[in-house]
Design goal:
The complex is a heterodimer of chains A (135) and B (366). Chain A is of the alpha/beta class. Chain A contains 5 helices and 7 strands, in the order βββαββαβαβαα. Chain B is built from 10 helices and 28 strands. Classes of the chains: A alpha/beta (135), B alpha/beta (366).
């Protein structure tokens, strides 16, 4: 596991079936409980994913998004691409050729750009007041 | 109105016979010819089902080839299977249910024996065809060419080279040297004008289906055209909420369940099941395959639990039976009549038992 600028990069096992997916999930779960988790799953070694594996990936994405984070895939082999497409989930994930590219993609929009404490709509009402006064 | 048989007679071609063999390429057979003669059980290169024996749009190329011969008035047809294809004999017998096969150790040698026998009932000319490529050839035109050339052997060629179709003057051929003559001698070259698909790899099967559904060749799907470009074979069930976008084919006794979409030159062969909400796009689902719920099969060929993605050139064997698997009970319509031709292999009957066991396994799995 590599942690770079708060982006966690984890290698998926060669075969992602019910058993390996469960073990991987146990390892991943604590990381997903942090605020705005940024996860990259390196698929370079993956040769086979079954339904349970795909379910684990979707669960991981869901958990990350619940906490305003994201999960991305990197180095997806053609075999894994075929399976993910076959199960209609390929388009759900952001996929990058390398883990570095995936990690960098998180910093393309810096975290500071969006205020962390105030809700997204907080500034909107102030802008509306300004517009009202102007009119 | 005269039949094609009359045409052959009146055309002065004499009595025409045909031998159709399911065997490895002649080059493989002739390369080890002397060995093959002394050790007929030498192991062979090919193990999988020959693609000519796989159903495309309801019928295999092998069956269509036999039909073509019958339509041309050639009734003396012998079908020979090489024992190197014994592991898939059940499958071959199933697709050629109406045409009893004779199986032996070496189909090429078997063909020379049949040729020798052809002299006795007075068959003047014999077509020797290896079931491999799909070739749109006019037998009458080929015979006319053969007669004009006055050579013992004529071989069909297309722009890519020789095809495994020969016309042999039975009376003039020395049976002992037939294999050598086919492999080494310079035959007359008959140029095939029609469509040719060599069926060398699985993607050629897909190409054949697409070419047929797009009317680029004369191969017509089985069944009836229920809407322009939509072919549904006997006993197929398509749910009213499923959508079949032309051109497409649904084979015999196949089921397309609710909310499915079959589109872009896709063919679902016989005895398949496409389960709820699945999309089959630009793909071939080979016979006896099950495709599970809510999946997306695109640019692929599915055969039992194997999926070949043609876009990425990736073949996957999927262990999860909820996704894809062999479907139910394969059709067991073949009535195999043993023929006393040459070197019967007892191992084949053992193979049949294995086949039955596999069928039972499939059923229990379902």
């Amino acid at each position: 596991m590599l942690i770079s600028k708060l982006v966690v990069i984890m290698e998926l096992p060669e075969e992602l079936n019910r058993e390996t997916a469960q073990n991987f999930w146990l390892e991943l779960q604590p990381l997903l409980e942090s605020h705005r988790p940024r996860i990259v799953l390196d698929c370079s070694h993956v040769r086979y994913i079954d339904g349970a594996g795909v379910e684990m990936l979707l669960q991981c994405l869901e958990e990350a998004m619940k906490r305003d984070g994201d999960m991305k895939l990197s180095a997806v082999s053609p075999e894994s691409e075929v399976i993910l497409e076959f199960m209609r989930v390929y388009r759900v994930f952001e996929v990058f050729p390398t883990s570095e590219a995936a990690a960098q993609s998180f910093s393309a929009i810096p975290a500071e750009a969006v205020p962390q404490d105030a809700p997204l709509y907080a500034g909107l009402f102030a802008d509306v007041e300004v517009l009202k006064q102007a009119s | 109105m005269g039949t094609r048989f009359d045409v052959l007679r009146k055309g002065g071609f004499g009595v025409v016979g045909a031998i159709i063999i399911v065997a490895p390429e002649l080059s493989h057979a002739t390369r080890g010819l002397s060995d093959a003669r002394s050790h007929p059980r030498a192991p062979r290169l090919h193990k999988g089902t020959p693609l000519a024996c796989v159903e495309v749009l309801g019928r295999s190329v092998l069956e269509r080839g036999v039909d073509q011969m019958l339509r041309a008035g050639i009734n003396a047809i012998t079908l020979l299977g090489d024992s190197c294809f014994a592991p898939v004999r059940g499958e071959i017998d199933r697709v050629a249910a109406n045409f009893p096969f004779a199986w032996g150790d070496d189909a090429w040698l078997g063909a020379t024996q049949i040729l020798r026998r052809h002299k006795e009932p007075g068959i003047d000319v014999t077509f020797l065809v290896r079931a491999a490529a799909y070739v749109e050839l006019d037998p009458v035109d080929a015979l006319r060419f053969h007669r004009e050339q006055q050579q013992v052997v004529t071989r069909a060629f297309d722009e890519d080279g020789p095809l495994d179709i020969w016309i042999i003057d039975t009376a003039r051929a020395e049976s002992e040297d037939i294999l050598f003559m086919l492999g080494e001698s310079e035959p007359a070259r008959y140029a095939v004008q029609g469509y040719v698909n060599r069926l060398e790899e699985a993607r050629d099967l897909r190409r054949l289906a697409v070419d047929s559904l797009s009317s680029r060749c004369r191969l017509r799907p089985q069944g009836s055209e229920t809407r322009p470009g939509v072919w549904i074979d006997e006993g197929a069930q398509v749910h009213r909420t499923a959508r079949i976008v032309a051109p497409a084919f649904v084979g015999r006794k196949s089921k397309v369940e609710e909310q499915c979409l079959i589109t872009r030159c896709s063919n679902v062969e016989s005895n398949c099941q496409i389960d709820y909400g699945t999309v089959v796009e630009d793909s071939s689902i080979l016979s006896n395959s099950y495709v599970g719920i809510g999946l997306d099969v695109a640019h692929s060929i599915v055969n039992g639990n194997k999926l070949l993605n043609l876009e990425r050139d990736v073949t996957l064997e999927i262990a999860d039976p909820n996704m894809i698997r062999r479907n139910g009970i394969p059709r067991k319509e073949a009535i195999v009549q043993p023929a006393d031709v040459y070197g019967w292999d007892e191992m084949l009957s053992v193979q049949d038992q294995d086949e039955d066991k596999r069928v039972l396994d499939d059923v229990s799995e379902v």
